[in-house]
């Protein structure tokens, strides 16, 4: 078992090389030496069943672990019945297409606090997550597709590390998405050392156990933040922004974890994912 690395979406270089369709991404990624890919429905679910199946087949053929990011406009923090119903329907569409793509993970932004109290919004989220688990069972996809609620970077969003761990305790099929850039931004520069990464992993292990720690879904990028939290994602060369990947690579190697790390750098996500993989492999070599 080893850590898998890949990009969120398609690098600028993929298009610069003349490629147009994400169907070609899995092969392109394998040739680069990567082993994961996150396809985003963030701004909308705009993929046909046939293309979804083609991407899924290409991912399987090239040994690329595929995850899908559900739409950003899903909001399980709301108490508005219409928003709740729309949100669960967007998630349903995402899950059905994820299955066509042979993806095993669906990343989810939990929603916003809005005008509710944080406790109320969290209560709404709990109800919707239970509904989502019933949905997986109805679709016969429980255990096959894992919903991965994400730690968020802005104060007005649900998704602190505590909230994500609480949510994932509802059912063992839920896998947290630990977005290190978001945790760093929400804590206004919270991740500065190997110990800071170890603290996060210890919290996950204590709340959810070793199996889910080992199978975590992770997002990584350098991130700019303000008082309100996350502002903008940057690349590996924008070293004025944290967090640093080196200490994370060290912890991953020492703990022999097999998490999946999706790079969310701007434009250079595949290139940066490869940089991460190289750094991680250096630590693995050092330890052996
Ligand atoms: Zn996300």
TrEMBL record:
InterPro entries: AP_endonuc_2, Xyl_isomerase-like_sf, Xyl_isomerase-like_TIM-brl. The keyword Hydrolase applies. Keywords: Endonuclease, Hydrolase, Nuclease. It comes from Thermobrachium celere DSM 8682. GO terms for biological process: base-excision repair. It is an enzyme of class 3 (hydrolase). This is Endonuclease IV. GO terms for molecular function: deoxyribonuclease IV (phage-T4-induced) activity; DNA binding; DNA-(apurinic or apyrimidinic site) endonuclease activity; phosphoric diester hydrolase activity; zinc ion binding. The lineage of its organism: Bacteria, Bacillati, Bacillota, Clostridia, Eubacteriales.
């Amino acid at each position: 078992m080893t850590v898998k690395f890949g990009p969120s979406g398609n690098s600028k270089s993929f298009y610069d090389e003349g490629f147009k369709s994400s169907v070609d991404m899995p092969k392109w990624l394998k040739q680069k030496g990567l082993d994961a890919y996150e396809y985003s429905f963030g701004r909308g679910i705009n993929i046909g069943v046939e293309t979804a199946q083609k991407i899924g087949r290409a991912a399987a053929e090239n040994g690329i672990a595929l995850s899908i990011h559900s739409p950003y406009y899903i909001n399980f923090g709301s108490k508005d019945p219409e928003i709740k119903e729309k949100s669960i329907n967007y998630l349903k569409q995402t899950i059905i297409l994820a299955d066509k793509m042979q993806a095993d993970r669906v990343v989810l932004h939990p929603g916003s606090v809005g005008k509710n109290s944080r406790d109320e919004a969290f209560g709404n989220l709990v109800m919707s997550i239970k509904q989502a688990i019933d949905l997986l069972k109805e679709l016969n996809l429980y255990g096959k597709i894992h919903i991965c609620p994400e730690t968020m970077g802005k104060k007005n969003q649900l998704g602190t590390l505590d909230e994500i761990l609480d949510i994932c305790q509802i059912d063992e099929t839920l896998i947290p998405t630990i977005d290190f850039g978001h945790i760093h931004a929400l804590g206004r520069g919270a991740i500065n050392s190997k110990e800071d990464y170890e603290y996060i992993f210890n919290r996950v292990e204590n709340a959810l156990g070793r199996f889910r720690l080992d199978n975590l879904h992770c997002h990584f990028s350098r991130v700019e933040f303000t008082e309100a939290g996350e502002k903008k994602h940057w690349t590996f060369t924008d070293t004025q922004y944290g967090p640093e990947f080196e200490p994370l690579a060290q912890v991953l190697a020492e703990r022999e974890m097999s998490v999946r790390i999706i790079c969310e750098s701007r434009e250079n996500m595949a290139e940066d994912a490869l940089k991460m993989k190289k750094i991680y492999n250096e630590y693995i070599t050092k330890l052996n």
